[in-house]
Design brief:
Blueprint lengths: L10 E2 L16 H19 L3 H8 L3 H8 L4 E2 L1 H10 L17 H10 L3 H16 L9 E5 L6 H12 L3 E3 H9 L3 H27 L3 E4 L8 H10 L1 E6 L2 H10 L12 H16 L4 E4 L5 H18 L1
Helix pairs in contact: 1-12, 2-4, 7-13, 8-9
């Protein structure tokens, strides 16, 4: 992609930018840009997309993204909005000092900011239950498997569904049926945001149509906050985790060489994705390690976890 821009007035590539008057006095421009860089890098890692893909979807050059992610770029608000849209995030999610809404929501956010991380997690769970309590029903009758590719979601999901005599679904296959094209073509045609819309729609249709099922979700679903919250509120969610090496080797063993194609940094990218998503994956009801375990051992661990959850209801 050409490193030049059609609208040069929308962008400055000065690493020595002056401090904005709107920034807090305690934070200088350099610190602000570093926070912004960390936010963009983390968002891209959670989405599991390369810088090249983000450049294509946002219409921004890879060179500029590299500068932005290193904390040396000074993005105009228009270019930053393009990047946020390509990541399917509100602009405020990338801004360290985004304005807060007024009224009760502002006061609620201020209260939440005072909580320590553990208390904030509990508050979030309480809000989820409050919002979805009339819609969730028996979550243990709907099992959702989450995790990166190569975790064993399809293999374990099919066996789990057979054992429990439940229908098994793969969310990506439902998305392909809904759209009429492959997942890769959805990304090519509609971008990240288009895929997320199909993903949410198909999940809602599954929840409406079936009271009992096992579903294997896409690895990046957890990075879409609203969809993931919906999944957590309506399904008993199990994270199938594995080492980065196992994830990579299993995908390659299936004959898919795309993770390594023209990407010498594939393993380090995968490790970063796992690090960025770990906190999200850990929101699941259960975490089952699949490395150095047989398929039967993983299946038994899933069943044991579900039985314990059902007994506690």
């Amino acid at each position: 992609m050409n490193d030049s821009f059609q609208n040069g007035s929308d962008l400055e590539l000065n690493s020595q930018s002056s401090e904005s008057q709107s920034e807090p006095a305690s934070r200088n421009s350099s610190e602000y840009l570093q926070l912004l860089a960390e936010s963009v890098r983390a968002a891209r890692a959670r989405r599991g997309i390369t810088r090249k893909t983000l450049a294509r979807d946002s219409g921004v050059s890879e060179r500029f993204l590299a500068q932005l992610e290193s904390g040396t770029g000074n993005a105009s608000i228009l270019v930053l909005r393009q990047i946020a849209q390509a990541l399917d995030l509100p602009l405020g999610a990338l801004l360290p000092d985004a304005d807060l809404p007024a009224g009760e929501l502002t006061r609620s956010i201020e209260l939440l900011r005072r909580l320590d991380p553990a208390s904030l997690t509990k508050a979030h769970e309480m809000l989820l239950r409050q919002v979805d309590q009339t819609q969730t029903g028996d979550r243990t009758a709907r099992i959702a498997l989450i995790g990166l590719r190569g975790a064993g979601k399809s293999t374990i999901g099919k066996l789990l569904a057979e054992k429990l005599r439940l229908p098994f679904f793969e969310l990506d296959r439902l998305i392909e049926q809904e759209s009429g094209v492959s997942v890769s073509m959805i990304f090519d045609m509609y971008g990240q945001s288009g895929f997320r819309r199909f993903e949410r729609r198909c999940l809602e249709e599954l929840l409406s149509a079936k009271q009992r099922f096992v579903v294997a979700t896409g690895g990046s679903l957890v990075s879409e906050a609203a969809t993931y919250d919906r999944l957590l509120a309506t399904c008993y969610t199990i994270w199938l985790e594995a080492t980065p090496q196992d994830h990579m080797s299993r995908v390659i063993a299936q004959g898919d060489m795309r993770p390594m194609a023209q990407n010498p940094q594939a393993m380090s990218d995968l490790e970063r994705i796992l690090i960025e998503r770990e906190e999200l994956y850990r929101k699941a009801d259960a975490s089952i390690g699949t490395s150095q375990r047989s398929v039967q051992q993983v299946l038994d661990a899933c069943l044991e976890s579900m039985n314990s959850a059902a007994a506690a209801v």
